[in-house]
Amino acid sequence: MEIKNASAGTLESGDILIQIGPSEQAGVQINLKSTVAYQFGEQIKKVISQTLNDLGVTNVEVNATDKGALDCTIKARVTAAAVRATGKDVWA
Q1: Domain count of the chain?
Q2: The pLDDT of residue 92
Q3: Percent of the chain residues past pLDDT 70, beyond the cut
Q4: What is the mean pLDDT of the chain?
Q5: Closest by alpha carbon to 22, among 87, 88, 86?
Q6: Which pTM value belongs to this model?
Q7: 26-64: b or e for each residue (b if 16 or more CB lie within 10 Å)?
Q8: How far apart are CA 41 and CA 32, in angstroms?
Q9: Which domain CATH number covers 51?
Q10: Whose C-alpha in 9, 19, 35, 86 is 20 to 30 A from the C-alpha of 79?
Q11: Is residue 1, in this structure, part of any structural domain at all?
């Protein structure tokens, strides 16, 4: 699956900016910057990883800048960025 650079989300409070690009390494590489990383960093990474896995997206690098987003927001932003990066319409 070809991966292009894509993003979704904002840097507003309660949101998350997800940037996805191709990676030469196998698997999903997640770089997380979050104001709540100490408390929720592992959960945020888990939601990102699981969402990409469910979409069949592998070998990507994800830069996530979180401003306190809920899991449902994280999933929505990751899905939107993945659709933009792959061109695969998951809603059809």
Answers
A1: 1
A2: 65
A3: 98
A4: 94
A5: 86
A6: 0.94
A7: eebebebebeeeeebbeebbebbeebbeebebeebbbeb
A8: 8
A9: 3.30.230.10
A10: 35
A11: no
